[in-house]
């Protein structure tokens, strides 16, 4: 671990140690850089590690790290055509998978609902897609910015705007 992380070890934000948040944030930044350089396999690995760190954060309000890593991971999976995997990631984020910590669930999250709905549509699952679309419409009505994709990191992706 780098020296800066050791210096921050004793500080707390809420109940989460800053070094732990810093490591999670560093992994997400590394993923962004790897994505830009087209190292997809390494980017997937960094995001999986970041998700593990996010899931291990102690429960706190407000959240210690405000950007759920699963949004970026799901978006990257969708971009690569790995729709079944993305469906699982968004379902986890929405809390439909009880095997992940409750503190990692984001029920009603507009970004995850958008991604989950996109996955269901692309996988040809019309009935679950219809139900999720109702939840998505409610979330979209409350959003203060237009939501055109499952992650803000996909907003420039013209193909994402279709979903």
Write a structural description.
There is one protein chain. The chain has 163 residues and is mainly alpha-helical. It has one domain (11-162): Serine Threonine Protein Phosphatase 5, Tetratricopeptide repeat (Alpha Horseshoe). The chain has helices at residues 3-7, 18-36, 40-56, 69-79, 83-94, 110-122, 126-142, and strands at residues 12-13, 16-17. Strands 1-2 form a two-stranded antiparallel sheet. Strand 1 (12-13) and strand 2 form a beta hairpin. It is globular. The relative contact order is 0.11.
Mean pLDDT across all residues, rounded?
77
CATH fold assignment: Serine Threonine Protein Phosphatase 5, Tetratricopeptide repeat
Q: Architecture, CATH level 2?
A: Alpha Horseshoe
Q: Compute the number of helices.
A: 7
Spell out the CATH superfamily: Tetratricopeptide repeat domain
The number of domains:
1
Query: Helix/strand-derived class?
Result: mainly alpha
Low-confidence stretches: 1-13, 157-163
Main β sheet profile: 2 strands, antiparallel
Helical percentage: 55-70%
What's the overall geometry?
globular
Name of the CATH first level: Mainly Alpha
Any idea what the radius of gyration is? Answer: 16 Å
Tell me the span between the first and last alpha carbons: 40 Å
Total beta strands: 2
Strands across the major sheet, in which order? 1-2
Instruction: Encode the helix/strand succession as letters.
Output: HEEHHHHHH
Strand content: under 5%
């Amino acid at each position: 671990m780098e020296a800066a992380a050791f210096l921050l070890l004793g500080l707390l934000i809420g109940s989460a140690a800053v070094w732990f948040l810093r490591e999670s944030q560093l992994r997400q930044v590394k993923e962004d850089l790897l994505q830009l350089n087209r190292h997809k396999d390494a980017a997937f690995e960094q995001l999986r590690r970041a998700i593990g760190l996010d899931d291990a954060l102690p429960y706190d309000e407000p959240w210690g790290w405000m950007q759920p890593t699963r949004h970026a991971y799901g978006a990257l999976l969708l971009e690569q055509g790995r729709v079944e995997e993305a469906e699982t990631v968004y379902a986890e984020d929405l809390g439909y998978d009880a095997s992940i910590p409750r503190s990692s669930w984001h029920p009603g999250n507009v970004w995850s609902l958008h991604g989950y709905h996109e996955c269901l549509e692309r996988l040809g699952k019309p009935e679950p897609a219809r139900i999720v679309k109702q939840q998505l419409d409610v979330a979209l009505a409350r959003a203060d910015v237009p939501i055109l994709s499952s992650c803000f990191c996909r907003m420039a992706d013209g193909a994402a705007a279709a979903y």
